[in-house]
């Protein structure tokens, strides 16, 4: 498999955790977002949406969108199960992942922040208020969803990591990066710490990637 | 089943199309967004994220996030299949749905537009430019993805409607509502017209809902 990503992309980070949890090897190709490499004709031929990540499978399929890639990996390969076998629990896990992928992350990705700064001319205080609002509200919703489930577990939906944790960890990492204070979200912080001590998550961290830039 | 939605919500519109395509009956409860009913304690007890739609199943489960609800419906009930049985095609359909649900719709929903107008003080021209950018780029990506698939089909991924069309139609409806010009996206417009002539889509239209307001 060839994986086209970027160290800082939350969506690529999700896929890296999934590869690691399932014990899958892949060839990595960095798509340098800051220099606009994702807008090149070569990359658009793989993913017409021109966003990382993309996956070229061993039989030549071109996949994109991190949640679709992760479901495909889970349906195609053995190893740890990332999405529950039980359809009712699966709906809860997918919904939690979608709270992050559909409601939080889209409001903080690179192209939106560039629009806020360049097209709308917002200063850093206004950009930080935007980030605090959407990351803060969104991660509060995640905390409330977990609280509604009942007693705390090591990972979001039980004692083993899965799709919910795969989405949560890069989102908390972004909150740290953007200095959004979520210190009061005790359950999320406990799960985040748990994940940091798991080698599959640690190896997927942006700082551990070959294309990392400080 | 009890379905909690709102006539204008794109995510609720998706679910309504899914119910209709599968021939499922449901009791509808309107959650009036403009008067903030989604922020009530009653609704938050069902969906801590405080966003429509939500589904209360016959056995009392509380589900939310439209894509998770639709996958659950497809896995639980017979009738038309909304998500392909083939895992490779399924990955393509999910990715297309996620382009809309994770990259277009989040940037145009009510709370974001309220933030642009109230918190950032943007005038209507700036709000319209925002909408034109994200809906325009996003639907262009959808057109390019369909073009890459090869010859045109009646619906996005073949001769029968499914999850991709379920997501596309409310997004095109939003583009119309916000006066975003997508007249050059010929394939999307042809699929949209095809869907309008399908009774399952027509009955799900916002104007056909009991809580519709002009």
UniProtKB/TrEMBL annotation, chains A, B:
Is Isomerase set as a keyword in this record?
yes
Q: Which Pfam families match?
A: GST_N_2
Give the GO molecular function terms. glutathione transferase activity; maleylacetoacetate isomerase activity
Query: Record keywords: rRNA processing included?
Result: no
Stored NCBIfam families:
maiA (TIGR01262)
Q: Please give the PANTHER family that the UniProt record associates with this protein.
A: GLUTATHIONE S-TRANSFERASE YFCF, MALEYLACETOACETATE ISOMERASE
Question: From which domain of life does this come?
Answer: Bacteria
Q: Which InterPro entries match?
A: Glutathione-S-Trfase_C-like, Glutathione-S-Trfase_C_sf, Glutathione_S-Trfase, Glutathione_S-Trfase_N, GST_Zeta, GST_Zeta_C, GST_Zeta_N, Thioredoxin-like_sf
Provide the protein name.
Maleylacetoacetate isomerase
For this protein, the Enzyme Commission number is: 5.2.1.2
Transmembrane segment boundaries: none
Going by the UniProt record, its keywords in alphabetical order are: Isomerase
Task: Provide the GST N-terminal domain boundaries.
Answer: 1-81
Biological process (GO), any one = L-phenylalanine catabolic process
The GST C-terminal domain covers 86-214
Q: An example Gene Ontology cellular component term from the record?
A: cytoplasm
Q: What family does the entry list?
A: Belongs to the GST superfamily. Zeta family.
């Amino acid at each position: 498999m060839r994986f086209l990503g970027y160290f800082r992309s939350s969506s690529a980070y999700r896929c890296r955790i999934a590869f690691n949890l399932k014990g899958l090897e892949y060839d990595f190709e960095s798509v340098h977002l800051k220099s606009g490499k994702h807008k090149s004709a070569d990359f658009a031929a793989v993913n017409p949406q021109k966003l990382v990540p993309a996956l070229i499978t061993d039989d030549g399929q071109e996949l994109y969108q991190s949640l679709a890639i992760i479901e495909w990996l889970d349906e195609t390969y053995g190893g740890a199960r990332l999405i529950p076998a039980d359809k009712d629990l699966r709906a809860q896990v997918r919904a939690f992942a979608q709270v992050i992928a559909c409601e939080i992350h889209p409001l903080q990705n690179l192209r939106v922040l560039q629009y806020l700064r360049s097209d709308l001319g917002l200063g850093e205080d206004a950009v930080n208020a935007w980030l605090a609002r959407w990351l803060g509200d969104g991660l509060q919703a995640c905390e409330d969803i977990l609280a509604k489930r009942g007693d705390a577990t090591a990972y979001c939906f039980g004692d083993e990591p899965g799709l919910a944790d795969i989405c949560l960890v890069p989102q908390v990492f972004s909150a740290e990066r953007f200095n959004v204070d979520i210190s009061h979200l005790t359950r999320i912080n406990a799960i985040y710490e748990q994940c940091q001590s798991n080698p599959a998550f640690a190896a997927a961290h942006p700082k551990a990637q070959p294309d990392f830039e400080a």
